[in-house]
Write a structure and sequence with these properties.
Blueprint: E1 3-8, H1 14-29, E2 35-40, E3 43-48, E4 56-59, E5 65-73, H2 79-82, H3 89-97, H4 101-106, E6 107-116, E7 123-127, E8 136-140, E9 143-147, H5 150-155, H6 165-173, E10 188-189, E11 194-199, E12 202-207, H7 211-215, H8 223-242, E13 247-251, H9 256-265, E14 273-280, H10 289-299, E15 303-307, H11 331-346, E16 351-353, H12 358-362, H13 369-378, H14 383-395, H15 399-412, H16 418-422, H17 432-440, H18 451-454, H19 459-466, E17 485-487, H20 493-501, H21 504-507, H22 515-521, H23 527-530, H24 539-548, H25 550-557, H26 561-564, H27 570-576, H28 586-607
Parallel strand pairs: 13-14, 13-16, 14-15, 16-17
Antiparallel strand pairs: 1-3, 1-9, 2-3, 4-5, 5-6, 6-7, 7-11, 8-9, 8-10, 11-12
Length: 614
């Protein structure tokens, strides 16, 4: 997988210069594939370009910087051109003059850009708005260190790291909130759409791209115009990503989002080799093969069907986690990662595609908020009742409570709380005092959602922005071997910006979730997929995984660090960690996907002799 590491320091600081020189010598002597791609007074950038994918480095002219990862052009109607970006002197001067902001306006992709202004001595680091490539920031001996993989910092001897227990508490209570802090005290994250500028040894951070700003400006109110724009952006983004790879393995669940992606892949002008993969289980709603088969047959693509087998999921592998700055949700990689990696290599696929992110981008949840959004935009006009009816059909609630909720929210709750909107108030085994304490703490609200940014913003726009606020994982948590890149083409900046401009009450038009996406692609998909309302679930499979690994899970959690710290309720945990059969439900997903993975992350750092004071 593609990796980078950048050192930035004040050339006038002798201590920092000597530290940067020592680390540069270690990297030069390393046998791990590092190549130096930018070397100027005060900044040096390295990358490892051994890869099974499309990530690379694109240099700016005159040593003015480098764009790491994959940067794409905005001309997505011509995907081959959009997939091959270069910077001449004229374009480089525009990028430098804007401190990198021009990249947000003229380009997109999965990248981190490092831009150097030779005249002022300022170095700017900019991460793409969807955060496709990791960007961690730490400092040591006067040198700022940016990297995609924290293990590389450890390999060259850049500072020890300690656990941030406040962050762990927040994460246990609200695992999907995104902030600059990480679970390591010494490491922060450059946020999606954020620019960090370094000058004379001082760093300044600024959000340059905020979905809230896009959602509240130039709305696409016309259904026909919105459908056309959504379709064009989806096709263009998928086609452009497809142009980056010779072969693709696509996870075709049989749902709407993965089927839309496949319909676009099937018409990609570059015609990559394409194989589809579907997982099925034996529990309720775990077998979606009839939908996947219908879609694969529709476009004439091969489909591999793989049965879920809980006996093959050995949770002991969690003891071999690679070091990362924060916990993540490792169950998918445990269940499918090795199989998908091997399958991709056999078929020559450089990337694993999926429809992930479509629920958020196309607005699958929280239709109730669309009623309040309509009141913000149009007041008590004739369309309010129609919007309430649409929202009632999507959410399967009565129309009158929705209207009352919207009226109250519009005039009595003009400020929105991202924590309240996420609604993780029912935490099965989390200490209730921890949830209440975290709810009062404003320290872990995404920098996109400052009070100034969200003042007067309708709640549906707020929710829509939150749905694209958590970057997807890029690396395997278990191996550093060459591994196919995971690509989520629906989480692409041009498409996200189009969908943010479409009001939520338009996105649920006629009482369907993701209504405009259905309309935009109804002629490309089997009718049963377009009309499908239910989503597949793997609750029974997760419960079976727990049964197969029960002794390990009990040993990890019942007397683990999260229980010792009082974050988890031990007696509540014990209720679920038994062999007595009970209805499979979301609780087991919460326990395995969230708490077990967090416990494993903590133990991995303790095992590495990480000091836990803090």
């Amino acid at each position: 997988m593609y990796r980078y590491l950048a050192l930035i320091w004040n050339p006038a600081d002798e201590r920092a210069r000597l530290a940067a020189l020592a680390w540069t010598q270690r990297l030069t002597a390393s046998s791990t594939g590092w190549s130096r791609i930018l070397d100027c007074n005060g900044v040096t950038v390295w990358h490892d370009d051994r890869q099974l994918g499309s990530s690379r480095a694109v240099a700016l002219a005159n040593s003015a910087g480098v764009v790491l990862g994959r940067i794409l052009g905005r001309d997505i109607a011509t995907p081959e051109s959009a997939a091959h970006v270069s910077f001449d002197e004229a374009e480089t001067s525009q990028v430098v003059a804007s401190c990198g902001r021009r990249l947000l306006e003229r380009y997109w992709g999965r990248y981190v850009a490092i831009v150097r202004n030779a005249a002022s001595g300022e170095v700017s680091v900019l991460r793409d708005p969807l955060g496709g490539l990791p960007c961690w920031l730490t400092s040591h001996e006067g040198v700022s260190v940016l990297c995609s993989d924290i293990e590389d910092c450890q390999a060259v001897g850049i500072r020890p790291f300690t656990v941030n227990w406040n962050y762990i508490a927040w994460f246990v209570a609200y695992p999907l909130l995104q902030i600059r802090d990480t679970a390591l005290n010494e490491v922060s994250e450059v946020q999606p759409g954020e620019r960090v500028s370094f000058h004379a040894g001082v760093a300044h951070r600024r959000i340059e791209w905020n979905p809230i700003d896009i959602g509240r400006g130039s709305p696409l109110e016309s259904v026909d115009e919105a459908v056309a724009s959504l379709r064009a952006a989806t096709i263009g983004c998928v086609h452009t990503w497809a142009a980056c790879y010779n072969g693709i393995l696509h996870n075709l669940s049989g749902g709407l989002d993965s089927s839309i992606v496949l319909s676009c892949l099937a018409t990609a002008p570059t015609r990559p080799e394409l194989v589809c993969l579907n997982y099925f289980g034996t529990g309720p709603n775990e077998d979606e093969r009839r939908y996947a088969r219908a879609m694969a047959q529709r476009v004439g693509m091969p489909l591999i069907e793989q049965q879920l087998d809980p006996r093959e999921v050995r949770l002991e592998r969690l003891s071999s986690l690679r070091p990362t700055p924060r916990p993540w949700f490792y169950m998918y990689e445990l269940d499918h990662g090795t199989y998908e990696g091997d399958l991709a290599k056999r078929h020559g696929a450089g990337s694993l595609f999926s429809g992930a992110g479509g629920d958020g981008v196309f607005f699958q949840a929280r239709a109730d908020l669309a009623v309040t959004d309509y009141l913000f935009a149009h007041g008590l006009s004739g369309g309010l009742l129609r919007t309430a009816v649409d929202a009632a059909r999507v959410s399967r609630r009565s129309i009158w409570p929705l209207l009352v909720q919207a009226l109250r929210a519009r005039w009595f709750a003009p400020r929105w709380d991202p924590i309240a909107l996420t609604k993780p108030v029912t935490r099965t085994v989390v200490n209730t005092d921890l949830v209440a304490s975290a709810k009062r703490d404003r320290g872990f609200v995404h920098p996109w959602f400052t009070p100034e940014a969200v003042r007067g913003v309708p709640p549906g726009i707020f929710w829509h922005a939150m749905a694209v606020s958590v970057p997807p994982a890029f690396y395997s948590p278990f191996t550093r071997d060459l591994y196919p890149e995971r690509t989520m083409p629906l989480l692409s900046q041009p498409l996200v910006e189009v969908c943010l401009r479409i009001p939520t009450y338009v996105l649920i038009e006629s009482g369907w979730d993701r209504a405009l996406a259905r309309r935009a692609f109804e002629r490309d998909l089997p009718p049963e997929i377009v009309r499908r309302r239910a989503k597949g679930r793997v609750d029974q499979h997760v419960r079976n995984i727990l049964d197969e690994n029960l002794n390990f899970v009990r040993e990890m959690l019942l007397d683990g660090l999260l229980v010792q710290r009082g974050f988890l309720n031990r007696s509540a945990l014990e209720t679920y960690l038994t062999r007595e059969r009970s209805p499979a439900d979301f609780q087991y997903g919460e326990i395995l996907q969230e708490h077990l993975c967090t416990e494993a992350w903590l133990r991995s750092w303790v095992t590495r002799s990480c000091a836990t004071a803090g």
